[in-house]
Write a structure and sequence with these properties.
Helix content: 40-55%
Strand content: 15-25%
Number of helices: 28
Structural class: alpha+beta
Number of strands: 29
């Protein structure tokens, strides 16, 4: 031991004044860099408070704080206690060693403030270990509010609620305790070394008995925590992915579970040996315990299960796994809502006479066959109805509204609707004032029936233009407040009730129409402190200094409806297609919310392929899902409502307990909104992806996949007949590659139709199935599933199975037949040679009683910068027969001679020119001019004779092209155009294409100049 005179001189201490200055500088530095964080925190609270949901903000905050404080406190106490014990066990006289000088310096600094050092070390490590647990607040919410599912798993006969609500949090806590114990052990060993209780470089005893006892106790406690971990690992076997299916399978139950019990016993034995080691000299027992533990972990925990899997299960997997496959089928169906699927036989009849009768007997189904494809006509809405650069249509949606039919009746009709959202990048005045005070909102919607078009093949807008115009003879909607301050892809913030008015639109005389916000949306900027906070949040100090901002002004932010809904309920997932609904004079967005978990025992994790990138389900692993919530956002005042539509879901019940102010019972939802419910397609994608295999109840058949289905292949919109995957597969096959990517699956589509056996029409989403094949070679139709969207039958899933003995064409085969049909192939060839672009709409399978009709639209657009896809042909298919005509009515009449299909084309809702993009407020319209060609000497023909002459000229043009006579072809086309122009001058209701240099394209696409 060194004498005191040999110790180094103490370093000078800082004066209190210097310490104070350093402290003040540090505080100012921290505040300067945390101002934005503090501002963000407070303005987030103000945002929740403005929605009347401050309890949600504080509830989440309380959970995070509670977890952080509890686990920080636990770690601090354990760490401080262990360090205090280490200090008390420090030897009075340390054995001399080469590290003495370093240790002496350490003690010279620490000894006088040992308690403070212990506290600081413990607190810093506790913050690191404990604060991270605040991120587990969702588990905590479910743990403290979850209840019973009322269903037990087949493996341990334990309620599913334990797996969903309790087990995740227990596992997290045990893992945290073990990790914390390891940290405490390491820090304690270091403390003993610094205190001299451990001496590595001295002869004789290197660890004092007291230190050995201390470390043995910590090691024993770690063994005890690991034992608890093994106990929980038993239940985690129900999530295993080792076997033929997810869940506890043969190897898990017969090999892994016994191994876990053995490891549990070894852990408890190790605990006893570590404690017993306190009373013995040396480390023999701990070494034996750890060695035995490691050996058993490798042999029993890994080797034995692998041996059983390879030599017992794999040679006879179907037999070994049969009972566990049965468990998996039962659990998966229950977890994904497939246990209530109703299976009905589809009494398919291929007789055309029967189909003709069915077409006439189902006018509601025929009338609602959708001709407009939202993806394809989006540019049409954009060019004809956005009207100003600062407005745009982001996505179009399919819904239904009561509309007057050609017969004069009012009936639910499919529509394509889009909200005219604010386009921030298109604001003409990109100043701060223009971007945040003047151009603050979108305006109205464009709505057109999905089952009819104008004579130009464009949407027949019933709700249109800026200011809003409604065809009240056809549709009764109230859109008295068309301004939309919230929408899709709307970013940034806006100030309402400012010292200047907001721009609505420009009138015909060029005068700007202004408006003043009268709603309650947004946060009031009624104090300088709030303005400073928002200025810091957005790093925009104009919010502080602008004189336009008054005490009554409001700041509107979080304007993207998806972000807004996710912020309000971050524990839910939402469908990727929120859609606008006209309700009570406002435009609202409807959302479908899901509760999900990956902890449903023995259930299969979902196949999430095909989910769109903006789906809330994308990228998350789950094996349980419920559509428990319908969300509504008012685009004028930003109000957010969540209605519980499935109160039987235990997960949503837990969230209701935690956040009662956030949820309302479904009975409180206005009937006007219930009428626009849609079954969410993201959920339907998941369910149909899984049902292809999980419709099978017999474990042997399930294992063999002989009766499995796949969702039908997607034919795509290409007119060349080959999808990218199909083309790639052909190339790979030529190179001898056998493992190839599977083709994309057909998307669900909404239809308004009468299901076989029903007496009224239902709004459903439909998806067909084909036999399963690894190489996608099987493409015949086996069945189709529908999900009902109507409130009285909402969520009802029905599968219609095709009868045996028929080879019914699936969508991919039908598409091949369409493209191979001479009339279609010829028309597409002509279009591609005329500087135009042809697109096929979504192929729709339409069940008409016990007949199946496929319908597909053909759109044509000019190959220039002003593309406006126009519907020019409708293709109908029955059996192997393909018919293409300019209208659905004509196609069905040709396909089913003698039928009188009741389509919307049987009469016109509205053929006003304003439908094609005319504005009520000075918006620009694409050029509507046409090329004029006359035919000399034909002025004395009647209108019908001119049309007949045009049809004959087109037929001659087709014949000339087939013979390779391009000059004759062009001459006949010009001749036909002349006839049509003359007919138009005599009052015909048909006009060829309205886009420049595309008159010929329009005529060729339609195959005529005027409707028959």
């Amino acid at each position: 031991m060194r004498v005191p005179t040999d110790l180094p001189a103490p370093r000078p201490r800082l004066s209190r004044g210097r310490l104070l200055i350093i402290g003040i500088v540090a505080v100012v530095f921290v505040l300067a860099f945390s101002l934005r964080g503090v501002a963000g925190f407070w303005t987030d609270y103000l945002w929740f408070d403005s929605l009347g949901l401050s309890s949600v903000f504080t509830g989440v905050l309380r959970s995070k704080i509670a977890l952080g404080v509890i686990f920080t406190g636990i770690f601090f106490v354990l760490m401080f206690l262990s360090l205090s014990i280490a200090d008390r066990m420090a030897p009075k006289i340390r054995a001399e060693g080469p590290e003495d000088e370093l240790l002496d310096r350490y003690h010279a600094v620490v000894d006088r403030r040992a308690r403070l050092v212990r506290g600081i070390v413990s607190f810093v490590l506790a913050l690191i270990a404990g604060v991270g647990m605040s991120g587990e607040w969702k588990q905590w919410i479910l743990f403290t509010n979850g209840g019973s599912f009322g269903v037990k798993d087949q493996t341990f006969q334990t309620d599913v609620g334990f797996y969903v609500f309790k087990l995740p949090f227990y596992t997290t806590v045990v893992n945290w305790l073990f990790a914390s114990g390891v940290i405490i052990l390491l820090v304690t060993v270091i403390a003993h070394y610094l205190n001299g209780g451990i001496r590595l470089q001295v002869p004789g005893q290197r660890v004092t008995p007291q230190v050995k006892a201390h470390i043995s106790v910590i090691l024993g406690l770690l063994a005890l925590v690991k034992a608890a971990d093994y106990w929980l690992q038993r239940y985690a076997l129900t999530f295993s992915t080792r076997g033929a299916v997810d869940g506890a399978t043969y190897t898990d139950v017969k090999a892994q579970l016994p191994a876990i019990y053995l490891l549990l016993f070894i852990a408890l034995l190790s605990f006893g040996l570590f404690i017993f080691n306190i009373f013995r000299r040396g480390w023999t027992l701990p070494v034996v315990a750890v060695g035995l533990w490691a050996l058993v972990s490798v042999v029993a925990g890994v080797g034995y299960p692998a041996f059983v899997q390879r030599f017992q299960v794999e040679p006879e997997e179907s037999t070994r796994e049969a009972p566990y496959i049965a468990h998996n089928i039962e659990a998966t169906r229950a977890a994904l809502g497939l246990d209530a699927v109703e299976t009905r036989p589809f009494l398919y009849n291929q007789d055309k006479a029967v189909a003709t009768t069915n077409v006439d007997a189902n006018p509601g189904t025929i009338r609602n066959i959708r001709l407009l494809d939202p993806l394809i006509v989006n540019p049409t809405y954009q060019r004809l109805q956005s009207q100003y650069a600062f407005y745009r249509f982001n996505e179009l949606s399919v819904d239904r509204y009561p509309i007057t039919t050609p017969s004069g009746d009012v009936a639910n009709t499919q529509v394509v609707i889009g909200s005219r959202d604010l386009n921030v990048s298109g604001i003409p005045q990109q100043s701060w004032e223009g971007a945040h005070l003047a151009y603050t909102h979108g305006y109205g919607v464009a709505l057109a029936p999905a089952n009819s078009t104008t004579t130009q093949g464009r949407p027949n807008f019933l709700v249109r233009n800026v200011p809003v115009q409604v065809d009240e003879a056809a549709i009764k909607v109230d859109l008295s407040t068309p301004q939309t301050y919230y929408g899709e892809n709307v970013s940034g913030y806006a100030i309402t009730n400012a010292g200047r008015e907001e721009v609505d639109y420009v009138e015909l005389d060029g005068q700007t129409k202004f408006t003043q916000y009268s709603g309650s949306g947004g946060v009031k900027l009624d104090s300088l402190l709030r303005r400073v906070a928002f200025g810091a949040r957005f790093a925009d100090w104009n919010l502080v200094i602008s004189n336009f901002i008054k005490p009554e002004s409001r700041i509107v932010f979080q304007r993207d409806v998806r972000d807004r809904m996710a912020a309000v309920a971050p524990f839910l997932q939402f469908d990727g297609d929120p859609y606008p609904v006209i309700s009570d004079g406002h435009i609202v967005y409807m959302f479908d919310g899901f509760t999900t978990t990956a902890n449903y025992p023995n259930a299969q994790r979902v196949d999430a392929s095909g989910l769109p990138s903006d789906s809330g389900l994308q990228g998350s692993a789950f094996n349980y899902i419920r559509n428990s919530v319908k969300g509504v956002i008012d685009t004028y005042d930003g109000t957010v409502k969540l209605y519980v539509v499935d109160p039987s879901d235990p997960m949503i019940t837990a969230y209701q307990k935690a956040f009662p102010a956030l949820f309302s019972p479904v009975e409180d939802m206005p009937a006007e909104l219930k009428a626009h419910w849609r079954y969410p397609q993201d959920l339907f994608r998941v369910q149909t992806n899984m049902f292809g295999r999980y419709h099978i109840s017999d474990p042997a058949a399930f294992y063999e996949k002989t009766s499995s289905w796949s969702v039908a292949q997607d034919p795509g919109s290409s007119v060349n007949g080959a999808t990218a995957v199909a083309t790639a597969n052909q190339l790979l096959a030529q190179q001898g590659v056998t493992t190839r990517p599977r083709e994309a699956r057909i998307e669900p589509n909404y239809q308004l139709l009468r299901l076989p056996g029903d007496t009224t029409e239902s709004f459903v989403t439909l998806r067909p199935f084909v036999p399963y094949s690894e190489d996608d070679s099987k493409k015949t139709l086996t069945s189709f599933m529908v999900a009902n969207s109507d409130p009285g039958q909402y969520g009802k899933l029905i599968v219609y199975e095709m009868p045996g003995g028929f080879n019914i064409d699936g969508p991919a085969i039908v598409n091949s037949n369409i493209l191979a049909a001479p009339e279609v192939a010829q028309r597409l060839t002509l279009l591609n040679q005329q500087g135009s672009r042809a697109q096929l709409g979504q192929l729709q399978l339409v069940p008409v009683n016990n007949s199946i009709v496929y319908v597909r639209s053909l759109y044509v657009s000019s190959d220039n910068t002003t593309q406006i896809p126009e519907l020019k042909q409708v293709i109908a298919v029955f059996g192997g027969e393909v018919v293409m005509k300019p209208s659905l009515r004509e196609a069905l009449q040709t396909l089913f001679p003698g039928a009188d299909p009741q389509t919307f084309e049987s009469g016109s809702i509205n053929q006003d020119d304003i439908n094609n993009g005319g504005t009520g407020g000075g918006g620009s319209t694409p050029d509507q001019s046409t090329t004029t060609t006359t035919v000399p000497g034909q002025g004395d023909l009647t209108k019908d004779q001119l049309i007949a002459s045009a049809a004959k000229a087109l037929a001659d043009a087709d014949a000339a092209l087939r013979n390779g006579d391009l000059a004759g072809y062009q001459a006949k086309v010009r001749e036909a155009q002349g006839y049509l122009n003359q007919a138009a001058g005599m009052g015909t209701s048909a006009t060829p294409s309205a886009t420049p240099s595309s008159t010929t394209t329009s005529m060729l696409a339609s195959g005529r100049g005027a409707p028959a």
